[in-house]
Amino acid sequence: MPATGARTPGPALFTTVPTAGAMHYTVGMDETRIDALEEQLAHLQRVVDDLSEVIARQSAEIDRQTRRVAMLMEREAEREAETASSVPLADQTPPHW
């Protein structure tokens, strides 16, 4: 049992890391934490880049679909104008009313 006021050892503040050859160097917990944060940051940057590409593709697809809808609406308006009907189809009341 430890004496009164004695402290139990906490987590190590430094870790020995093997390197090439017989030499070792000591990495502080701050350095280990910074390495982990840099790794997380790199992963998050990759995710942001991937999502940015997805958004760019979706934006291009939305623009293309918007142009198609506008073109189809113009064609339909021209077709309605060419028919003998005096009231455009869009202005006619549905038969069930």
Describe the structure.
The chain is mainly α. Helices cover 56% and strands 10% of the residues. It contains one helix and two strands; from the N terminus they run E-E-H. A two-stranded antiparallel sheet has the order 1-2. Strand 1 (14-18) and strand 2 form a beta hairpin. The termini are far apart.
In short:
This protein has 97 residues and is mainly alpha-helical. The protein has one helix at 29-82, and strands at residues 14-18, 24-28. It contains 1 helix and 2 strands; from the N terminus they run ββα.
From the structure above, extract its key features:
single chain; 97 residues; mainly alpha; two-stranded antiparallel sheet; 1 helix; 2 strands; rod-shaped
Question: How are the elements arranged and paired?
Answer:
Layout: E1 14-18, E2 24-28, H1 29-82
Antiparallel strand pairs: 1-2
Strand content: 5-15%
Low-confidence runs of at least 5 consecutive residues: none
Average pLDDT taken over every residue: 78
State the helical fraction. 55-70%
- Which strand order do you get reading across the main beta sheet? 1-2
| Biggest pleated-sheet summary | 2 strands, antiparallel
**Topology as H/E string?**
EEH
Tally of individual helices: 1
Structural class: mainly alpha
- The Cα radius of gyration reads 35 Å
N-to-C terminal Cα separation, in Å? 92 Å
What's the total count of β strands?
2
